[in-house]
Amino acid sequence: MSISLLQQLNGERSVVLLFVIQILFSTSLSLIPEAVSLSLLSLLALSVEISADDASNPLGHFFKARPGASSGVLLGAVTVPSLLVSRLIQTLRGESINEFGTEGIEYLKLQYWAAFASCFAVLIFLSTVCRRQRKDRDSICSLSNCNQRYGFIFTILLVGFCLVLLSGLLYGGWFLSLMSLWVLSHGLAAVLLIVKILHMFPACASIGESLLVASGIVIYFGDMVACTAAKISSSKVPLVQIGINRSEISTIIQGVVFGLLLFPVFYKYVLRTLEYFVSLLRNGDLEKNEMKRSLVFYASLAFMLLLVVPSWMQFVHPFHVHPLLWVLDFVLSEPLKRLTLCIYWLVIIYVSVRRFYNISKNSKTERILLRKYYHLMAVSIFVPALIFQPKFLDLAFGAALAVFLLLEIIRIWKIWPLGHLVHQFMNAFTDHRDSDLLVVSHFSLLLGCAIPIWLSSGFTDRPLAPFAGILSLGIGDTMASMVGHKYGVLRWSKTGKKTIEGTAAGITSVLAACFVLLPLLATTGYIFTMHWISLIVAVTTSGLLEAYTAQLDNAFIPLIFYSLLCL
User: Fold this and answer.
1) Across 407-458, where does the E strand assignment appear?
2) Is the preceding peptide bond at 558 cis, omega within 30 degrees of 0?
3) What are the tens digits of pLDDT across the range 122-163?
4) How large is the C-alpha radius of gyration of the chain?
5) Buried b (16+ CB within 10 A) or exposed e, 147-169
6) How far apart are CA 433 and CA 418, in angstroms?
7) Contact of 131 with 203, CB cutoff 8 Å
């Protein structure tokens, strides 16, 4: 059995298990339940991935995943829970020096268990699909006729809800029941969301990538619901009161992001309602009138972003003015520094985009190398702001993400007059991981740089942790691709393109960048508290993952690197 298991451990799985082992060995006795659950989750994910990647491809007729990539179930299942365990390890150090409160740690633990439930429920769902697919391959052809096949899973979850509620009332009261139901509801939501993602965007993502997105959205949206419930509840329910303490910037980012994510549903509902009334008046077909449809789009967007989203922001946080006015006041509070930084960003972006867009149209340079220049551009944009204006960079990342989401919505819905222009422009920078249905590369690069910075906005005793995305993508990934493409000879595998020379260059360049960054950070008051051996292990692990993984490295590597830097 052990020999068979070792034969199933390819490069990616070995590196992911090595990453999990590093997390587990760093946990304290107070995190034993989280460590045990993470180890069990990893073993279950490994088992499901081995089944999913079998030659018979049991999930192939059920999910249409991105071609050319493995399922990535193990990496997708352990990334978010491992990151939260790593954050718990870091915050426990903060509690020991009175930098972090007990309530915040308890809420972070609750988020971990929500992430665990999300990934565990999806793994059970995928395992069940694999088994049933092997029994009856001909009866499952698409997502549209699979309801009877996985409906019993939701029944089991519902029964589990009832049992947890009953046991909580009998032995722990309402508090335990509410916490248990809150955690388990994340599992049900994650299963529904990953099915929806793979159904709406076929061949756009692997199962592991979809699992990462689904679990991340569920945790983030659950936090938003908890914050809202904390304001609604007049009885001060403990579940939603733990740890809910966020800044104005995080509230604005959360509101705008979810407003834009929910906007397509809202717009579709408005469009259908207007179409119904137009049909009653027999005044033409609104769907076929591009101009009228676009006007409805922009009016609905203004209503969502200027009224609905700000109303939620002012409800959950004591803004004394409209959030848009608060943003303007924040930017102008240090006008010389922040406006100068904005001008610097605009100049860099304009020159770079114009230069590289012309090269992509007229040059034979490989698309993958051309895209790495944008990684270097990200370094030049983000590093100065992260050192000298970190709060303003948090807000700028949120604004950039909102713009990207809005442009992608306009591109997908083909909204006049920008839809065709945005689609044409995006095609110049896509690669094999993008499709006409969904372009994800620019999102993954932005979020890969932004998420470690957002996660470090509170307490952090690891000054390099916020730079995890910038170092791994902007420097390590770029140098690995360039050196590997030009000088690489020894390949990690017979079928892959990654070379040992490229990986070595990526690891070396990140370590060199750390040597340069640390003196700069010391001038701003940061003290390097991480052992150099731990830093080398973290850089090497993320570099090996970049070499072996077939998943979207921009999405996974910054989170893995950040988790290791927090230890």
Assistant:
1) none
2) no
3) 998 888 887 776 665 544 444 444 444 444 455 555 555 555
4) 24
5) eebbeebeeebeebbeebbeebe
6) 24
7) no
